[in-house]
Amino acid sequence: MSVLVCALVLLTVTGCSQPSTLQEIRNEGVLHVITRVAPSIYYEGRDGPTGYDYELAKLFAEELGVELRLRVAEDNTEVLSVLSKNFAHIGLAGLSAQPLFENQYKTLPAGIEAQSVVVYNRDADRPETLSDLAGKTLHLVSDSNHEYQLEAHAGVAPDISWEVHHGLDAAGILARVETGELSYAVVSSNELKLNHVFFPQVKQGFTLGEPKELTWLFPSSQDASLITAAKAFMAKMEADGTIAQLSERFYGHLDHLNYVGARTFMHHVENRLPTYKALFKDHASMFNMDWRLLAAIGYQESHWRPNAVSPTGVRGLMMLTRNTADYIGINNRLDADESIEGGAKYFRMVHERIPEHIAEPDRTWFALASYNVGFGHLEDARRLTESAGKNPDRWMDVKEFLPLLSQKEWYKKTRFGYARGHEPVLYVQNIRRYYDVLARMTKPTEDIDTSTDSQFVGLEPNPDGHSRAEASDEEPDMRASLPPELGMIPPTL
Fold first, then answer.
1. Which domain holds residue 454?
2. By the 8 A CB rule, do 460 and 471 touch?
């Protein structure tokens, strides 16, 4: 009894109490965050983990002076479950505040607005209101922003129905609308914006409700200390322009994805290329490659603009990242001479990493894809290709499987996980078409050093007698038009 009395007296004197959530985080030195993989939230990029919410959470952890420890969930259902059990401090799920969250989670707006968008396959009838979908089925991901909005509209359009697809993400839903397997679906506007260019058969119908800010989620059982600190942090990031910068980095360039006509390319060939042609030829010769291929890469990267700067901070005519430039010994990325030399050197290094048994021109197409998306993701796609009974050493087979790396049902089977796998496919296609035009405009005997070993595209025929470009695969002639520009950058090693 005396021990208990002493303990009570000690508590009274010292004022001991349970530490706050924020103090617990600082004591442990770790901020625990639960998230899912999505291009709008978190994914493994060329230079490591990235994504709008991830970058913001990393800055918040730095502000608190602690380590950011990330747990990746299968889907939002798992994110919400972990939070409800108070097994994480913050959840990044790409969700806006919802009525059902009121007693379960605290929410904090994170700077990006989105709304639910009804999409449809272009061969289906275009819906303008929910009433137009009477008798049809809308398809959704699980635990999204969409279901509660559909429930709210049920009184107005009682005949609507929907199906929730557990195990699919937004890209998986859009892929099925693209093929016509699903006629109608609902996705978040920000995820549609990030993915729409890859699904041209998907059309936007109408929106449900007004745009709402996407939020960070906090367990309701937490005290207010962490969310109060997070609110102050968000206000600081808004005031100093960090949120606007992150928004531009991940979303600002998407509206610039458009079709570039052959006339535009020809104009640049006539007006820009002459300034840099000698540099392309000199550095291509140094690294034993076709200068027209190097020039095509440069056009894809920057439209031959030496002062180009991307939303992610890479720069120069060849759009080198700082890490890549440092690795290959380039000091000034804005100097056209150094940039082109760096691009040639880096591409040669990437090309040499592709297995030697892969024949040209496929080895070059694989090198371009690796230059864009990274060697690990390319190898994942080759493994998927082989497991499907197709040839992992042939580009025309592998390019069918690269886009699957953006869908959870596929990337969860791979070693390196999520990748925006559509981009390297378009990247390679673009460069091949630019190369074809340059090849038709120049004479190899005059512009190419034929004394070099001919391991790059366009220099030697295949054993069947066709030229490398003719024998590759069925890419259309680019004399009529060019594909969308993506402005991609080389990865780091």
1. 258-484
2. no
| Catalytic residue chosen out of the listed positions 147, 191, 301, 360 | 301
Look at strands 43-45 and 48-50 and give their pairing: antiparallel
Residue 303's identity, in one-letter code, is H
Tokens of 144: 């999204």
Burial 435-446 (b: 16+ CB within 10 A, else e): bbbbbeeeeeee
Tell me, yes or no, whether 291 and 322 share the same domain. yes
The answer to the question of residue 345 being in a domain is: yes
Q: pLDDT tens across 115-170, in order? A: 999 999 999 999 999 999 988 999 999 999 999 889 888 777 778 899 999 989 99
Strand, coil or helix: 99: helix
Q: Are residues 155 and 287 in the same domain?
A: no
The DSSP-derived string for 283-341 is HHHHTTS-HHHHHHHHHHHHSS-TT-B-TTS-BTTTTB-HHHHHHHT-S-TTSHHHHHH
Is residue 178 annotated as part of the catalytic site, yes or no?
Answer: no
* pTM, 2 dp: 0.67
Nearest to 280 by CA among 344, 371, 330, 361: 344
Tell me which long-range contacts 150-153 makes (C-beta under 8 A, separation of at least 24): 150/186, 150/208, 153/208
